[in-house]
Specification:
By secondary structure, the chain is α/β, with parallel strands linked by helices. It is built from 24 helices and 21 strands. The strands form four sheets. A seven-stranded parallel β-sheet has the order 11-12-10-13-14-9-15, sandwiched between helices. The structure holds adenosine-5'-diphosphate and magnesium ion. Magnesium ion binds next to α10.
């Protein structure tokens, strides 16, 4: 197949943007390293680092109306320097100043040498700009940002960028200004009608304007400058997806039209009836399977909606047709759980699923590999180990990707390459709003399980500060009956799983002492896999009624008797994750509850998250809110390195732009699926600008 995108040598006009940050004037090695790590190695990355707020440093005259914490510029006349005699003193140096009859105090810690004497000579007016604070009825500015002799030297409007350790505002501003000087004018890739309709500027003009806001309104995602740049991102993404889609569906898919005897047998043996939604979705999948079209389908269903059974039905069709079907899960616990439950389901059918996970005995691994390669294994269940090169399939016809948001694009594609024209069924319990599904997967077909099995009572959710942990423990002591099971999820500390583990161990020790009757067990990622399985087993089948765990149990764990979920440091989890965790309960008929323990004080976003959790059990609503609160990247999960995330596009605001970009991309790709035609030169530049050319080349097997 022709892969024209590999011919996308980077166009010369873009060279300046892909120069290293270290080639910018005045940017030293140390600074360029930090910028490289936090923002990116290239000039283009700096230009995309958009300011998140704006400081307006307008000259103020009336001290009385200045609010605490406001950034102001004042004309001050220093009248006295008060410097601690002892140079090592912790006491700050103070410079007292007159302001039109009033007084302002400038405060400096560790002032060096005679810097202050030179910068603020006595009785000479100076413009001083910084954050003003009221302290005992006096106005103070600690470490002003600017001290100048003329007003012109102070920027009236100063864009503020996200900073990180080692990167301060001044050098970053300088680097960005230098980067902007290199922004070239580029041919227009946006459809002329769209550009006119919104009154958008050219790309280079918008790029510079992005960094020079003069009003708050310009920072809003719906300001034309940001809209235009967001559209660029969306269009590049949609073009890439459309191209991948064309290449991956070009070859014919396989036809799987089994006789249905295995599927019928399964339906006869399960102790419940399918929900209507399950029946519908099973039909949608089987329609894909029986046509020559290659299946690329996303199955969305809230936690507990019964996706596993749908997947097994699809797999059985493939098995009936003589090929292999595999299901891949993001964690070993989940893979083993699937293996257990699917083994039980398939036992009456005489099918023994094969398990392949990372931590198995060498002999088991060897046996699994050969059964998979020789075709003896028909239903295969595993983790990332399935992706490994060593794992060769005899005749893989279908992969089911469970909790697909945990996998990257790359992994999904490798899996699809493990056979010829492998059908892909990607499942997610974190429902993805339609718009996001479109960006992430282009035209992936969509199936939705929008109904839960009958008889599930909604979960009651409460939030309380961690200070009330004793109440929670006391309540558990009273209410936990011998049939109830409780999950206790310990804080997620992102920096290190070591700390997570320590926190879980400490909590486990405490709870073992205070709730001995529940016979607590501990579960975390650093335990040996035998020990973990043992703990899960005790919780599932044994005398353990309290499982103290890290967020490891987040996805998929299915223990219907569990009815109480306690989540510590709930403020640290994202909404989607909280919903996933909560979804571990409410799976049986019992009334279930979820307690969100948080550490006060709560930030604004965390407060909003917990409020949504209390109000809603609806995964779709939660996913939409999550996107609003955190931006789409987080909803999708893992960020792919080398695959630039959206910087400006935010689907909470730009959904309409997404469908415009989608349509424009479709129009282009319809006639020129490799984007090689002369009239699409501008779009090729766009792809290179967002480095989608590389992604496409990879995705297309280039
Ligand atoms: P999820 O969609 O979260 O992956 P599962 O597939 O794990 O959900 O199913 C959750 C539970 O519901 C399992 O215990 C499963 O056996 C059960 N289940 C699935 N379908 C039905 C149904 N139609 N009626 C009753 N229970 C069902
Ligand atoms: Mg599941």
């Amino acid at each position: 197949m022709e892969t024209g995108y590999r011919k996308f040598a980077r166009q010369e006009v873009l060279y300046p943007l892909f120069r290293g940050v270290d080639t910018l004037k005045g940017i030293g090695g140390r600074l360029s390293k930090i910028i490289g790590k936090r923002i990116g190695d290239y000039v283009i990355d700096l230009t995309r680092h958009a300011p998140h707020s704006l400081i307006r440093r307008h000259l103020r005259e009336n001290l009385a109306v200045i609010k605490d914490g406001e950034v102001v510029t004042l004309l001050l006349t220093p009248t006295r320097h008060d410097r601690p005699a002892d140079r090592n003193s912790r006491r700050p140096t103070r410079v007292f100043c007159d302001h039109d009859g009033g007084q302002v105090e400038l405060v400096f810690f560790h002032a060096k040498g005679d810097y202050l004497a030179r910068a603020l000579p006595l009785n000479q007016p100076r413009y001083v700009s910084g954050r003003a604070e009221w302290y005992q009825q006096k106005l103070q500015i600690a470490h002003p940002d600017y001290i100048t002799a003329t007003l012109e030297e102070i920027p009236k409007n100063e864009p503020i960028y996200a900073l990180t350790a080692g990167l301060t505002a001044k050098p970053l501003n300088k680097a960005i200004a230098a980067a902007l000087d290199l922004v070239p004018s580029l041919p227009e890739w946006i459809d002329a009608d769209i550009k006119t309709r919104f009154g958008w500027e050219d790309w280079d003009v918008a790029m510079r304007a992005l960094h020079r806001p003069t009003q708050e309104a310009e920072l809003h995602p719906e300001h034309p400058i940001r809209m235009r740049l967001a559209y660029d991102e969306l269009l590049a993404n949609q073009l890439a997806l459309a191209m991948v889609r064309v290449s991956s569906t070009q070859g014919k898919g396989r036809v799987f039209a089994g006789a249905g005897e295995l599927r019928q047998k399964l339906l006869d043996t399960i102790p419940f009836a399918l929900t209507q939604a399950q029946t519908r979705v099973i039909g949608e999948i089987s329609a894909d399977q029986t046509t020559e079209k290659r299946m690329l389908r996303l199955l969305q269903g809230d936690v507990g909606s019964g996706k596993t059974l749908v997947a097994v039905m699809a797999m059985l069709n493939v098995v009936e047709s003589g090929a292999q079907a595999a299901i891949i899960a993001p964690t070993e616990i989940l893979a083993r759980q699937h293996h257990d439950s699917i083994s039980k389901m398939l036992e009456p059918l005489g099918i023994k699923p094969c398990l392949l996970v990372g931590r198995m005995k060498a002999k088991e691994t060897r046996e699994a590999h050969s059964a998979i390669a020789e075709g003896g294994a028909r239903v295969i269940i595993g983790t990332h180990a399935l992706i490994a090169e060593k794992t060769q399939f005899h005749d893989l016809g279908l992969v089911v990707i469970d909790e697909q948001h945990r996998f990257g694009v790359r992994q999904r594609l490798i899996l699809g390459d493990k056979g010829s024209a492998v059908d892909v069924l990607a499942m997610t319990a974190t429902p993805i709003p339609r718009s996001l599904a479109m960006t992430a997967y282009g035209d992936l077909d969509n199936s939705i399980l929008d109904e839960k099995p009958a008889g599930r009572a909604p979960i009651t959710t409460t939030a309380m500060p961690i200070a009330r942990i004793d109440d929670v423990v006391a309540r558990l002591r009273q209410t936990a009956s011998p049939t109830q099971k409780v999950y206790w999820v310990c804080p997620l500390i992102e920096e290190s799983d070591k700390i997570d583990v320590a926190a879980a161990e400490a909590r486990f020790t405490e709870l073992s002492a205070s709730l001995p009757a529940l016979n607590p067990r501990l579960l975390h990622g650093r335990m040996k896999s035998d020990a973990r399985e043992d703990a899960m087993h005790a919780f599932r089948h044994g005398t353990t009624h309290l499982l103290v765990a890290t967020s490891l149990i987040e996805v998929g764990v299915d223990i219907p008797e569990a009815s109480i979920m306690i989540i510590e440091s709930a403020e640290r989890f994202g909404l989607a994750q909280l919903h996933q965790l909560r979804g571990r309960v409410g799976r049986g008929g019992a009334q279930s509850s979820c307690v969100l323990l948080y550490r006060a004080p709560l930030g604004e976003v965390a407060r909003a998250r917990l409020a949504i959790m209390r109000e809603s059990n609806d995964g779709f609503r939660i996913a939409t809110e999550d996107m609003r609160l955190r931006g789409p990247g987080e909803v999708l999960g893992e960020k792919q390195s080398g695959d630039p995330e959206f910087m400006l596009a935010n689907l909470a605001y730009h959904e309409d732009l997404l469908s415009l970009a989608h349509n424009q991309a479709q129009d282009i790709i319809k006639t020129d699926s490799t984007l090689t035609a002369e009239q699409h030169q501008a779009q090729r530049i766009l792809m290179a600008l967002f480095e989608r050319d590389r992604a496409v080349a990879y995705l297309a097997g280039g």
